[in-house]
Task: inverse folding
């Protein structure tokens, strides 16, 4: 009842769709995350690689008690941002080692991107602008840390950031900066995510040649 009473954007999906989507995603999570943990237990994969997968599960399972138990939109928004951040981290570390785990989790990444934007929008619509600015700053900080970590890793491996990757990062940052204009902000973030996925796909194609 509490969630139904919240103000939501016009593009918010109906409540019944979340069950089937998450059932499908949890099948993917069980298979891929379970395989990563199995490899880690067998010492065929460093535990540092399995760490973001473990953290992602913690933040994922924490969302429902925060959102529907505590009925706290702000904490739920911060939590879903952490779900997205740990998932991006997990995808980045697993890609060079187990490619099929990376590709199988693409639907999970896309849904969490959408869910993050939806939750931040719901939080914004149901409170004043001050907490929303806080969320934007937290998001920016997490993305900045992830970007720095990826740049450091690329520099260590002598791999420069591609032009497409740089543009996608710039679009996401611009989307956060201009987030008060929701249509502009979400359009920039969405374009950045699409370009980032395209960049990863192009790189993977080049490596297989």
Result:
């Amino acid at each position: 009842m509490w969630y139904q009473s919240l103000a939501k954007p016009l593009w918010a999906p109906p409540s019944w769709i979340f069950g089937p989507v998450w059932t499908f995603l949890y099948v993917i999570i069980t298979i891929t995350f379970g395989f990563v943990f199995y490899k880690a237990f067998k010492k065929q994969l460093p535990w540092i690689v399995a760490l973001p997968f473990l953290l992602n599960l913690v933040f994922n399972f924490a969302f429902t008690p925060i959102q529907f138990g505590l009925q706290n939109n702000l904490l739920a928004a911060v939590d879903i941002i952490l779900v997205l951040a740990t998932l991006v981290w997990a995808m980045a570390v697993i890609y060079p080692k187990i490619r099929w785990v990376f590709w199988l989790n693409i639907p999970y990444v896309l849904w969490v991107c959408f869910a993050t934007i939806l939750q931040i929008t719901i939080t914004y619509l149901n409170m004043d602008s001050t907490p929303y600015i806080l969320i934007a700053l937290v998001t920016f900080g997490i993305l900045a840390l992830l970007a720095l970590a990826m740049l450091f890793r690329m520099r260590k491996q002598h791999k420069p950031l591609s032009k497409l990757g740089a543009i996608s990062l710039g679009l996401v940052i611009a989307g956060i900066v201009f987030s008060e204009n929701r249509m502009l902000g979400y359009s920039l973030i969405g374009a950045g995510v699409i370009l980032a996925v395209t960049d990863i796909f192009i790189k993977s194609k080049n490596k297989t040649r």
The two ends are 54 Å apart (CA to CA). The helical segments are 18-41, 47-69, 73-94, 99-104, 106-125, 129-156, 163-177, 182-208.
